[in-house]
Write a structure and sequence with these properties.
The longest helix has 20 residues, at 110-129. 44% of the residues are buried. This protein has an eight-stranded parallel beta sheet with strand order 1-2-3-4-5-6-7-8. The protein has one domain: TIM Barrel. Helix 5 (110-129) packs across helix 6 (142-152). Strand 5 (134-139), helix 6 (142-152) and strand 6 (158-161) form a beta-alpha-beta unit. The chain is an alpha/beta fold and 267 residues long. It has helices spanning 18-27, 43-53, 77-88, 105-108, 110-129, 142-152, 167-175, 192-200, 231-242, 246-260; strands at 3-5, 30-36, 59-64, 94-101, 134-139, 158-161, 178-182, 206-208. The structure holds zinc ion. Zinc ion is lined by residues 7, 9, 36, 97, 161, 211.
């Protein structure tokens, strides 16, 4: 089985031994990991990690961006820096993790909300300029995100990570060329809407992720942190919901992720 984790924060400091985490992931069938960034002062760390650990049997594909929950760490010069990285590093597969968040009360305040939108649209504009897809963080603001994408005119699509919206909201993203990412939430029987949406969407617009070290699957909820090696639990859950074979589904999901991020796998 060849699994692709479409969202894992492998550079998070809690992963103290990267080689061991990757070894474990590889043994559990993970052969590719998309590693999105969250704040500018980690970009070089993430790129160095990619150079050090990317290998033919377990590919690492980085994305660079500023996450909305790290708005406080953002400085205007980071946009110029991001543009420089995107111009120079041709193995960056997407701009991400970027987006909007209405879940955190502080970020809903008018001033911070405006700053979120401005930062998001500026990063969408960079993705458009460099013809790159995006990896989206979207909590309780799907219509705002769709509006921003249309306003900027981004047509490269990408992935909506940890999708938790409705079937209709999913279709709005699909119409813009996006795939929807499903992770640990799928493994909880109480997550009825997410499970129903994941079961009903066309297979061609699905991808899976761990979001490690976050989003522990139900089987591991006693653990302190999630690992990319747990991706098979998400796959098993999705295969079960869709009543299909896990092996066939894994092959399709691999290709969906490659397509969403226009990855040149063997270059
Ligand atoms: Zn993330």
């Amino acid at each position: 089985m060849q699994l692709l984790d479409s969202h894992c924060h492998l550079d998070a400091p809690v992963f103290k031994d990267t080689a061991a985490v990757l070894q474990q992931a590889g043994a559990a069938g993970v052969k590719g990991i998309i590693v999105p960034a969250y704040q500018a002062d980690r970009w070089q760390v993430l790129l160095d990690m990619q150079v050090k650990y990317d290998q033919p049997t377990l590919r690492l594909w980085p994305a660079l961006g500023v996450h909305p929950l790290f708005l406080a760490e953002y400085r205007p010069q980071h946009l110029d820096l991001l543009a420089q990285y995107l111009a120079q590093q041709d193995h960056i597969v997407a701009v991400g993790e970027i987006g909007l968040d209405r879940y955190e009360p502080a970020l809903r305040e008018p001033e911070l909300w405006q700053r979120q939108v401005a930062l998001f649209e500026a990063q969408l504009a960079l993705a458009k300029q460099f013809n790159l897809p995006v990896i989206l963080h979207a909590r309780r603001c799907h219509s705002d995100i769709v509006r921003c994408i249309k306003r900027v005119g981004l047509n490269t699509g990408g992935i909506v990570h940890a999708f938790s919206g409705s079937f209709e909201e999913a279709n709005n993203y699909i119409a813009l060329g996006f795939k929807l990412g499903f992770g640990g939430a799928l493994t909880y029987e109480s997550a009825r809407r997410i499970r129903a949406v994941a079961a009903a969407l066309p297979q061609s617009c699905l991808v899976i992720e761990t979001d490690a070290p976050d989003m522990l699957p139900s089987q591991c909820r006693h653990m302190t942190q999630n690992h990319p090696a747990n991706l098979f639990l998400v796959l098993a859950s999705l295969a079960n919901l869709r009543q299909t074979s896990a092996a066939e589904l894994a092959t399709a999901l691999w290709q969906n992720t490659i397509d969403a991020l226009q990855i040149q796998e063997f270059l």
